[in-house]
Amino acid sequence: MKVIYVSSEVVPFAKTGGLAEIAGTIPKKLKKLGVDIIVIMPLYKVIKENNFHLINTDIQVETRIGDKIQIGYVYKGFLPNTNVPIYFLECEKYYNREGLYNYPGSTEDYEDNCERFVFFSRSVLEIVEKLNIHPDILHCNDWQAGLTPVFLKTIYAGKKCFKNTKAIMTIHNLAYQGLFWHWDMKLTGLGWSLFNWKQLEFYGKINFLKGGIVFSDIITTVSKTYAQEIQTPEFGVGLDGVLRERSKDLYGIINGIDYNIWNPETDGYIAANYGLKNLGGKRICKKALQKKYKLSEKESPIIGMITRLTDQKGLDLVANKFQDLMEANLQFILLGTGDQQYQVLFQDYAKMYQNKVAVNFSFDEQSAHEIEAGADIFLMPSRFEPCGLNQLYSLKYGTVPVVRNTGGLADTIKDVSMESVYNGKVNGFSFKEYSSESLLNTITKAISLFKDKAQWLKLMKNGMEQDWSWERSAKEYSCLYEKIIGDRQ
Ligand code: ADP
């Protein structure tokens, strides 16, 4: 089975969020299951600067963008410590800049994102043709690759190498759809006949992700609950109707985490290693965290958050009740990048509550690991959450998650009220109503249970014992691949 995995970001080459981790891991696991898989992504400046070992393949693609031909160059590398090939599409004009999608340090998108990702999504097919691969499956991720299935089923439909190719579209976050000015249809070369409400048009604009959903054979998203939620107006971000139409082809496959990277027993970033059988190191990590962020070195529970600073992540709930929260005996650390308004707000809180509150507005892998290891509670009160990774890291690090019951958080975190902690199943705290009151009540419950050392320890251990590795998800993807190939025959 030959699979082309298309992603605009892949760990360790370039990352802005969860997609990169998934794209850096799932192909490795699929390869182990016998899937012949290659990955394709853009060659961003950050990749060139990091001296990865890449080979110039001498392959050159000539991709039509509007009425021009744009040349791209193809480089090859491997996912680290594997034999999974990854091909990089180079085009200085589009990808040789500081940010992946927006100006660094801001949330302002590059004005030519449409053109940049029309080029990427179409060039993928050009690269596959040049490599003379006859793929069974093109697995496309998020809006940046949303037009690949559209090109596959239209302009490239008659090509020999795509005769038996099926397309899968995976939605990692429906909130990002790739919406562009309608005149940019010209750049795609797809023809105005596709610009209608059943295909690419969305309230007068072009919608890349909608194209991917409509033209793919199968659609997946990253948890079962989110797969249901996105078919409702509340979570559908305008595409719920389109998704309901494709309901029988829509699957939810929960993400996993890479225990080679996220494991307190082997983590090289943290002050001391620890595990289920020797939890002592966690105390050292907590002390180190308090020291680094100049928090008073008390026994009070530390609440950690590592997040993009966007409305999605429930920061408004935290901000609204922050002063009430601060009356409790706790400490709070926020690591995040994004909206300026949240930075200003939490910076002010950090000034107001020195020794209790710390903020770090950088994107910093090491700090993320340190917080996972040193905190006692991990807070993720998301408005919506397709899957979420940090709650899964937290479980492994014995940092008890407090989450909102939505999407992947609902599928992974079982609230303590459901049964006794001693049955081994409950692993955190979860609330349903999106309100500051519910958040505050739930944190209050967590802090109160924190004082009961025996129960708390058991709760930590319940999470640490669970297995959220990628093997399970990879098996589900591979079954799905088998299924669509089977349907084809
Ligand atoms: P999303 O993909 O919506 O951003 P996820 O929880 O699925 O949320 O994944 C986010 C990933 O990005 C996690 O691996 C998290 O640790 C990481 N991350 C987010 N913000 C930062 C940051 N400021 N520094 C380091 N890592 C971060």
What is the correct CATH architecture of the largest domain? 3-Layer(aba) Sandwich
Please tell me what the overall shape is: globular
* CATH level 1 name of the largest domain: Alpha Beta
What about the largest sheet?
Answer: 9 strands, mixed
- Ions, cofactors and other bound molecules: adenosine-5'-diphosphate
Counting helices, strands and paired strands, the structural category is alpha/beta
CATH topology type of the largest domain: Rossmann fold
Q: Looking across the biggest beta sheet, what order are the strands in?
A: 3-4-5-2-1-6-7-11-12
Strand content: 15-25%
Assembly type of the shown chains?
single chain
Number of self-contained structural domains: 2
Number of helices: 19
Q: What is the first-to-last residue Cα distance? A: 13 Å
User: Could you tell me the radius of gyration in angstroms?
Assistant: 23 Å
The low-confidence runs, each spanning 5 or more residues with pLDDT under 50, are: none
